[in-house]
């Protein structure tokens, strides 16, 4: 960039009429910088906090640049130092914008560090929860041990009671046969009750599972609804952005139409100016013919000729300036067309993305509806299971009532037995109570085991989550290190760019000195040409004086004394004077012709140089366009990366591996673009050096030709001088063609399409 600016400033110093295009380009560049920095400000974390002061500073800088450009347009006679200072101010503003972007990146890094600290705090909380869960597990284990001790004690009691019962059974073997039938029936009914209880337990477990599944599905539905709402909000924002861009396109189209009308008016004015210039040329030709007829009145005609020349030079300068303004306006129109095409392409892409979002939203709605239907079906199944459970509970209660009735009948039958039977009954009742206690304790044990398993599963899941968080933290730290490295590299680049700025300022000063030397040389050549014209005028005056003196001498030779001898003596000098006069006239004719030829050659060389300057202007403009395209591509890549990161964060809430790959691709693209720009700058430097060498050679050849015309040597032959001038002109032509070939070759090497003549 800095090399391009130096070359551009160098050519602006050489070429008149370049100020208009340079000011418009600078205005566009400043606008691009402001837009890029404002766009980067949108992607920051705090949209209202950190970006407002940067915007204010950039608006002030933009206002200052506009004021300077207005002053430049008003005062078009400013020197080259003002242009250089203006370009350096623009470079300083660019550096300030880059520094502000670096500050924003540092703020983003601080935000990332804050996020990392928040995740650390969350991990600490999870660890504390794990410790609490471990404490709960230890408490449950202690309870389990207590229950086992109680079970062992109850087993001992049961053993003692069993011994007593065996003693009683030995006594009551006779009644066992009678009670066996009743007990068989009771056992059958108890088996049925146990089966019913097992089925109830299974049904309760199934109901709990269905409840958990329903809760999980409800949570999923809520999450899906939130995602759908977020996508709808994003769609509304995208539609608003598309409407704003369409309004911008309409305004740009209206501006383009107005500029086309202005171009048409300027073209009509140019046609009028060209007609006037052609008429002036015809008048010049007529004046030249009249001057050839009336050679005696040379002084008056020369003054008229000079005035007409000045008028022609002014008209030509106006034509050149108008042509340059037309070319710049056309280039502006082409750039606006390109921008409009790019904006239309972006609008089409955004419309495609909106349609894809709409389709994805429709699919999401369909999925939500299907999940709702599934939920309704699951709820219906759950209700059916609850009904079945209630029916089974009623059956169990009925069976229990029947059992109670049968027990009452058994009690009535056994009341007639002896005291031993009553003791047996009491012992049996105590045995049943102990069995019930055992069942209760066993159920408590099972519940404790289930709780322990559940807590172990939770602990394992929390450990897995902790490991995932540790991995995410390590990835985030690696990314932070990479970002810090990038910031350090950017700082190194900024320091190198500042050094390049210093070098470019030194180069600009050297180029200014070189231009001043060239201007001094041109002034010397102009002085020499004016001296040559004065010498020619003196020669003409001397020839006229000689003619007048010869006529006076012829009149005075009418004396009658010693006549023939004096006439013979005087005839010889008169003949010599006439011969000298003829020689002087022929020499004057040849010198005039050679001067005309030399002027034509100089004009042709100047035209060729102007064409080459225009070609170089077009090359520089294309390089500027390439730089703008590269900046636009960078901005688009940054926007795409930000959009992808936002979508990825809303969908999964995790850091992905794709961001690293995108950064690597962007780095490779930026390196390739920098290589292209460096190649183009080297090509432009070579062109500038070759053009400077050619200008030096042309100025030296012009000086030598003028010296030979003003101070002719002894034995000067005008025909030989004309031949030498033709040879010099041919050499200049060959140099110009060689320079054009070199420019085309360098443009091809830089990857830029050649300019059509």
Layout of strands and helices, then pairs:
Elements: H1 2-14, H2 19-42, H3 51-74, H4 80-171, H5 173-293, H6 298-414, H7 419-556, H8 563-652, H9 658-710, H10 718-750
Helix pairs in contact: 1-4, 1-7, 1-9, 2-3, 2-4, 3-4, 4-7, 5-6, 7-8, 7-9, 8-9, 8-10, 9-10
Describe this structure in words.
With 757 residues, this protein is mainly α. It folds into 3 domains: 1-171 and 418-513, no CATH class; 209-397, Helix Hairpins; 557-757. Helices cover 93% and strands 0% of the residues. The protein is built from 10 helices and no strands. Helix 1 packs antiparallel against helix 4. The radius of gyration is 53 Å and the shape is rod-shaped. The chain starts with a helix and ends in a 7-residue tail after the last helix. Residues 1-54, 558-574, 654-660, 705-723 and 752-757 have low confidence and may be disordered.
* Main β-sheet description: none
Compute the number of strand runs.
0
* Sheet/helix structural class: mainly alpha
Helix content: over 70%
What is the general shape?
Answer: rod-shaped
Low-confidence stretches: 1-54, 558-574, 654-660, 705-723, 752-757
Number of helices: 10
